[in-house]
Amino acid sequence: MEGNLGHPVFQTQWGKIAINICYGRHHPQNWMMYGINGAEIVFNPSATVGNLSEPLWPIEARNAAVANSYFTCAINRVGTEIFPREFTSADGKPAHKDFGYFYGSSYITAPDGTRTPGLSRLKDGLLIAEMDLNLCQQIKDKWGFRMTQRLELYSDSLYEVVQPDYEPYVIRE
C-alpha cells in the first residue's frame, strides 16, 4: 500500500520528478497531487498481472499525463515470480505459488497525450525517449485545465466525506 508522506516532488538535474507507486495509479487524486506539487515527470513502477488490471494499463497513466500536464512513465515488470510456499488470493481458487504473469508493456506519455509504443509483454526491455519539459508549461497554457480545476470545492467536499456522519449528496425525486 501507499506510504503516508504525501506526494513529494523531487527537483533533480533532469527535472521535477515524482514516484506514484504501483497501486497508486488507480487513484486520480494521487496523480493530481503530484501535478499540483509541480511534477514534470511522474514514474509509476508497477508489478501487476494480466488478470488484475491490464485493461486499465494503457489508460491510467496516459489520462494522468493529459489531466495534469506532465510526462508519465508507466513501468511494469515481465515474467512470473515463483514463491517457495503456496498461498491463496482469497478468490476461492486453489493455493498457488505465483501471482500470475506480469505483462510488461511499459510506455511513456507526454502532456499532450502522445505516447510511445509499449515495450514487450514477454521480455525485459529498455525504453529511451526524449522529453521536452517545456511542453508541460505549453500544454498548461494552451488547455487551461488548472483554471477550471475548482480545488477549493474538492477540499470542502473531501472534508465533509471524512466526517463520521457524512451522507452522500444525492438529489432525490
Report on this model:
The chain has 173 residues and is an alpha/beta fold. 24% of the residues are buried. Helix 1 runs parallel beside helix 3. The chain has a 5-stranded mixed β-sheet, with helices on one face. 27% of the residues lie in helices and 21% in strands.
Q: Which outline best applies? A: globular
Instruction: Quote the average pLDDT.
Output: 91
The total of beta strands comes to: 9
Order of helices and strands: EEHEHHEEEEEEHH
Question: Radius of gyration over alpha carbons?
Answer: 19 Å
Return residue spans where pLDDT drops below 50 for at least 5 consecutive residues: none
Q: What does the largest sheet look like?
A: 5 strands, mixed
Query: Ends: how far apart?
Result: 40 Å
Strand content: 15-25%
Task: Give a summary of the structure in a few sentences.
The chain is an alpha/beta fold and 173 residues long.
List descriptors.
single chain, globular, 173 residues, 5 helices, alpha/beta, 5-stranded mixed beta sheet
Topology:
Blueprint: E1 10-12, E2 15-19, H1 28-36, E3 41-46, H2 50-53, H3 57-68, E4 71-76, E5 78-79, E6 82-87, E7 96-98, E8 102-103, E9 107-109, H4 134-143, H5 151-161
Helix pairs in contact: 1-3
